[in-house]
């Protein structure tokens, strides 16, 4: 199956017209038509976007000898999502601010019950606030993909 045949098949499976598909890719309908007739090929950026839209690999799109998409693609995406989450958690746990406020809480409890030194208590609270702010900044950075 050619690149054009695969694009046609994938587009029709999603019940998209050439015009709708062209709008998604921000190209003309004529471009989609040329791709599907194998008169032209999408550029690399468009091929990557097509792969993302249809959840298929570039190997599937570009290699004529590959007739079917890899059925393990969904499980590979799930594994990648799990790995990303695990890496994020490990980063979070290895980052000192989380330990700063956990240790601060334990330290604060000890100081309040045993030492009752107001300067120490204030310094501990300031350290905990700084650690908490750093932790929130780290979480915000992770959520924003920074």
What this model shows, in words?
With 146 residues, the protein is mostly helical. The protein has two domains: 3-62, 434 Repressor (Amino-terminal Domain), CATH 1.10.260.40; 73-143. It is built from eight helices and no strands. It has helices at 3-13, 18-25, 29-36, 44-54, 58-62, 73-94, 96-115, 118-143. Helix 2 (18-25) packs across helix 3 and helix 7 (96-115) packs antiparallel against helix 8 (118-143). The longest helix has 26 residues, at 118-143. The mean pLDDT is 77.
Quickly describe the structure.
The chain has 146 residues and is an all-alpha fold.
Average pLDDT taken over every residue? 77
Q: What structural class do the secondary elements suggest?
A: mainly alpha
Q: Provide the gyration radius in Å.
A: 27 Å
Strand count: 0
How many domains would you count in the coordinates? Answer: 2
- Residue windows where pLDDT falls under 50 for at least 5 positions: none
The count of helical stretches stands at 8
**Strand content range:** under 5%
Distance between the termini: 40 Å
Give the helices and strands as they follow along the chain: HHHHHHHH
Helical residues, percent: over 70%
Shape: rod-shaped
Largest sheet: none
